[in-house]
Structures are given as C-alpha cells and as structure tokens.
C-alpha cells in the first residue's frame, strides 16, 4: 500500500489545533458543564439583519459576487469606518470583503510573508496568527506584554525593531484584545504609530472588537500609519454574526491589489446573501452594538469584582468580552491543570492562559459573553473551588 501520510507540508508539524478548541472538546462531556470558553456573543443577530438575509435568499442572491465583494457593501463599510473611526478608504479599490476576519488574517499574512521573514507578535494574543505565520515559513518574534498590563509599549517595540532590522516584515496588533480585553488610548496608538513609521514594516491590525470599547473612543492605528496598515474588521462581534462569516480588509490601493490575489484563490468571494445582509447591518444597524456593549460592561464589572475578591490579579478590561486573570499563589499554577481540575470538580470551564502564548501561562481567560444568570452561577462555582482547593 502506498503511504502518503509523511508527505504533507512539513510545517504542519510545527502547529496544532488551537488549545482553545482542544480544551473545549476535552471538557464538553462533563455533566452539568457551564462553559465560559469560546469568544462568541450570546446575543442573536439583529432582526432587521436577519430579514435582509432572508430577503436576499428569496431574491436569488445565490451567485458569485466580484472578488472584492458587492460594491454597495464596500461603500457601506467605507462609510461605517469613516463615521465611526475617522478613516477614509476608497470603496472601489481599498476595501475587500472576506469570509470572516479569520480569512482576512490568512489572506493578509500569506500576501505579505516569505520564508525567513520575522513578525512581531505582542503576547498573550489570540492564537490565530502564529499558525499562518509558521505555514508561510516566517518566524514570530514575541513581545511579552504581561508585565505592562497587556499593552505593547512603544519603547519595547522600538528596541525589537532595532534588534531585528530588515528581517521584520510585519507587526500584529489586536485591540481591544483577546484574551485580556484591554485597548489603547489615542496617545498610545500615536506613540506606536510614530515608531512604526520609521521602519518599512506592515501593520496588520485586527480591530474586530472595535465597537465593544467601553471607556472613550476606539482609535485605529490606520488613522496615524495608514500607508503601512492592513486593517481587519468584521461583523461577528459588533452585530453578533459569528456564523455568517463576514469580514473586511481596509488597506491602501497598492496593498489591496496584492492581497486580493491571495483572497481570490482562498475563497473567490464571500457568500452573496450574507453580503446583502451585511449592507443592512452597516447601514441601518450602525449602532447595533451599543445595547450589547452596555450589557457586556455590566457583566464585566460583576465578574471583575468577584474575581478580585477571590484573589485573582487582573487588568480591568476596557473592551471585548474577556477577563484574563492571574491564578493566585497557593493554587495549581499550570493553567491547563488548573482549568481541568476546575472543570472536573465544579463543572465550570474557562480557557487556560497557555493557549494564548508567551506571557499567558499562569492565567485563565473567562468569556463573559453569557447571561448574568450563568455568570452568577459560574462565580459561585469558582468561589467554591477556590475555598476548597488551596494547596
């Protein structure tokens, strides 16, 4: 028998299925399990968006669109980021519609990276970037932000860029961040942009949680370093549309011309009926995130206070819907072992911090994209665990 199992891309040996998904599957069969694991809104897609999608199907939007996506959607997306974030992008040539931000990440990184390149990755960070970097033959250079309240400092960024020089091809940003839920002030964004503009590097900025910013305004780095920035956003978090798979890339025309080549051969185009629904979301639902954001903020305050009272150290989230908490001393410090023990003893699942890379070990990530009833029960279970499992 011919054996082809050893003939896969050898770089696949360097990556694994996300630890988030591995852990979620590991604990899912535990009876009475309460999961605060996956980053998915517990709200439903707004009714007007659903009806727009239904209408699109009834009107036979079942054919390919152009590779860039429907022009009306790109116009709506361009207007949305202009009105919300003071950004100007030409809808004809500087906006791409993607199959979720995940595809936007892949299309952007594959377009930019070559074997031997280095990519600066502030960590802990969502584990969706490193595998694509690795498969492209590039190498992630991690900056541990855990000692700086999970914010990348411009001084450390400058040091890293000076150290690696022209080997650095790109910098990843993700804010408000997953897993820590922190974001950047205007002054902090400006300071990072001033560093970036000294070097010929791409900034791949994943701002999918932009509409879930609690204090102040969301400031995109594209406002200050436009010519180098590939801006990623989408509707999964702002409009509770994770399953619709609708993302957006905003970039200067010369960058977009290259990224569309990769995008074309990955997916051709996003689903046509979904694109019609997205037009409605970005036009008639420009503020759909506001009531969700208000509710998330209440949940954040509740969970933050309860975890603090239980001895966890944590930076107060200023966006998204996660809390990243340091396991108190006197308890299991291995985050995977802690989370497995918690799941088995209390039927409560949170994600091990190790899933988010450098600086994440010793932490847990809790998603408060859940009802207050579930959060109250979860914190009761956590309290019981902490009271009965100190070493």
Give a structural overview:
- The termini are far apart.
- The chain is α/β, with parallel strands linked by helices and 391 residues long.
- Helix 2 (47-58) runs antiparallel to helix 9 (272-283), helix 3 (71-85) packs parallel to helix 9 (272-283) and helix 4 crosses helix 8.
- It has two domains: 10-44 and 289-389, Aspartate Aminotransferase, domain 1 (Alpha-Beta Complex); 62-285, Aspartate Aminotransferase, domain 2 (3-Layer(aba) Sandwich).
- A seven-stranded mixed β-sheet has the order 2-8-7-6-5-3-4, sandwiched between helices.
- Helix content is 39%, strand content 14%.
- The chain has helices spanning 19-27, 47-58, 71-85, 100-112, 130-135, 154-164, 186-196, 253-267, 272-283, 289-309, 335-346, 372-388, and strands spanning 34-35, 95-98, 118-123, 139-144, 168-174, 202-206, 229-234, 247-250, 313-314, 322-326, 348-349, 351-352, 363-367.
- The chain is built from twelve helices and 13 strands.
- This is Aminotransferase.
- Its EC number is 2.6.1.-.
Secondary-structure blueprint:
Blueprint: H1 19-27, E1 34-35, H2 47-58, H3 71-85, E2 95-98, H4 100-112, E3 118-123, H5 130-135, E4 139-144, H6 154-164, E5 168-174, H7 186-196, E6 202-206, E7 229-234, E8 247-250, H8 253-267, H9 272-283, H10 289-309, E9 313-314, E10 322-326, H11 335-346, E11 348-349, E12 351-352, E13 363-367, H12 372-388
Parallel strand pairs: 1-11, 3-4, 3-5, 5-6, 6-7
Antiparallel strand pairs: 2-8, 7-8, 9-10, 10-13, 12-13
Helix pairs in contact: 2-9, 3-9, 4-8, 6-7, 10-12
């Amino acid at each position: 028998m011919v054996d082809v199992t050893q003939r896969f891309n050898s770089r696949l040996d360097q990556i694994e299925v996300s630890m988030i998904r591995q852990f979620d599957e590991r604990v899912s069969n535990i009876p009475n399990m309460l999961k605060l694991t996956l980053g998915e809104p517990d709200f439903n897609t707004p009714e007007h968006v659903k009806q727009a999608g239904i209408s699109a199907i009834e009107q036979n939007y079942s054919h390919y669109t152009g590779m860039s996506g429907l022009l009306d959607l790109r116009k709506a997306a361009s207007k949305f980021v202009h009105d919300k974030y003071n950004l100007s992008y030409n809808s004809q040539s500087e906006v791409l519609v993607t199959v979720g931000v995940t595809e936007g990440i892949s299309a952007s990184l594959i377009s930019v990276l070559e074997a031997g390149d280095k990519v600066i990755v502030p960590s802990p960070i969502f584990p969706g970037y490193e595998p694509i970097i690795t498969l492209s033959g590039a190498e992630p250079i991690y900056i541990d932000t855990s000692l700086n309240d999970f914010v990348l400092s411009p001084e450390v960024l400058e040091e890293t860029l000076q150290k690696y020089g022209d080997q650095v091809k790109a910098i990843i940003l993700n804010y408000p961040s997953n897993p820590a839920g922190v974001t950047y002030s205007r002054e902090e964004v400006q300071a990072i942009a001033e560093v970036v503009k000294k070097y010929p590097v791409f900034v791949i900025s994943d701002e999918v949680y932009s509409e879930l910013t609690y204090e102040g305004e969301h400031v995109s780095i594209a406002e200050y370093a436009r010519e180098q920035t590939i801006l990623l956003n989408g509707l999964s978090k702002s409009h509770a549309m994770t399953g619709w798979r609708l993302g957006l890339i905003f970039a200067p025309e010369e960058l977009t011309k290259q990224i569309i080549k990769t995008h074309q051969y990955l997916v051709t185009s996003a689903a046509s009926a979904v694109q019609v629904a997205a037009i409605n979301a970005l036009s008639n639902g420009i503020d759909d995130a506001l009531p969700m954001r208000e509710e998330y903020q209440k949940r954040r305050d509740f969970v933050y206070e309860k975890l603090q009272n239980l001895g966890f150290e944590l930076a107060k989230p200023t966006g998204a819907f996660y809390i990243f908490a340091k396991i108190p001393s006197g308890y299991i410090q291995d985050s995977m072992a802690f989370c497995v023990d918690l799941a088995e003893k209390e039927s409560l699942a949170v994600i091990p911090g190790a899933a988010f890379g450098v600086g994440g070990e010793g932490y847990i990530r809790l998603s408060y994209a859940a009802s207050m009833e579930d959060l109250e029960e979860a914190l009761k279970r956590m309290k019981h665990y902490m009271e009965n499992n100190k070493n």
